[in-house]
Amino acid sequence: MARGCLQGVKYLMFAFNLLFWLGGCGVLGVGIWLAATQGNFATLSSSFPSLSAANLLIVTGSFVMAIGFVGCIGALKENRCLLLAFFVLLLLVFLLEAAIAVLFFAYSDKIDRYAQQDLKKGLHLYGTQGNVGLTNAWSIIQTDFRCCGVSNYTDWFEVYNATRVPDSCCLEFSDSCGLHAPGTWWKAPCYETVKAWLQENLLAVGIFGLCTALVQILGLTFAMTMYCQVVKADTYCA
C-alpha cells in the first residue's frame, strides 16, 4: 500500500517539476533573447546598473531550472536528500518573496523617495557612451506614457545644464524638438504616471503573485509528501 502511494506521488511530483523546469527554460530563453537583441530593456537605476529586465529573467530562469531539475531527479530516484534539498530551496524562495512583499509595503514611502532620487541620478547617464539601453528605456517610457522627467521636465535641465529636454518629451516628435519652448513638451511626471499605471493593473499583479505562491505551496506539499512516503517505504522494506 505504501509503495502504491509512493508511485502515485512520485509521478505527480515528477510532472510538477518537469513543468517547473520547462517554465524556467522559457524565462531563461526570454532573458537571453532580450539581452542579445533588445538593448531597450535596460535598468534605469544608476546604483544597480546590472539590474536590467534581461538579467533578472536570466537569473530567475536559471534558478527555477536548477530547482526543477533537483525536484525531477529527486522524484525519479526517490532520493530523500534531493527531495529535502528541493523542499528547503523552494521554502527559502517562498519566505524570501514573503519578506520582500512585507518590507515593500512597510517601507513604501522610503522606497518611493529612494527610487526617485536614484532615477534622477540615472538621468545623467542618458545619451552617454555605454548606456544605450538606459537611453532607449527612457525614450520609450517618455514616449509611451507621455511624460517627461522623474518629477517633471525640469529634471532634464540639470542634465543638460540648459533649458532643454530629450526629443522623446515632445508632444510632436521631430529632430531637436527638445530645444523648443516648454509648451511643446509633455508635463506629466514619469514616476507618478508609471506608478499610477501599475496601481491600475494591481489586480493582475496580485493574481500573478497569488498564482505563484499557490504553485510554490503545491511544490512544497508534493516534496514533503513524497519525502514522508519514501521514508515509510524504506522503513517498510527494512
From TrEMBL:
InterPro entries per the UniProt record, alphabetical: Tetraspanin/Peripherin (IPR018499), Tetraspanin_animals (IPR000301), Tetraspanin_CS (IPR018503), Tetraspanin_EC2_sf (IPR008952)
Domain of life where this protein originates: Eukaryota
Gene Ontology process terms (BP): protein-containing complex assembly
Pfam families recorded: Tetraspanin (PF00335)
Keyword Signal listed: no
Record's keyword annotation contains Disulfide bond: yes
Cysteines joined through disulfide linkages: 148-169
An annotated Gene Ontology molecular function: integrin binding
Keywords: Disulfide bond, Glycoprotein, Membrane, Transmembrane, Transmembrane helix
Family: Belongs to the tetraspanin (TM4SF) family.
Name of the protein described by the UniProt record: Tetraspanin
The organism of origin for this protein: Nannospalax galili (Northern Israeli blind subterranean mole rat)
Organismal lineage: Eukaryota, Metazoa, Chordata, Craniata, Vertebrata
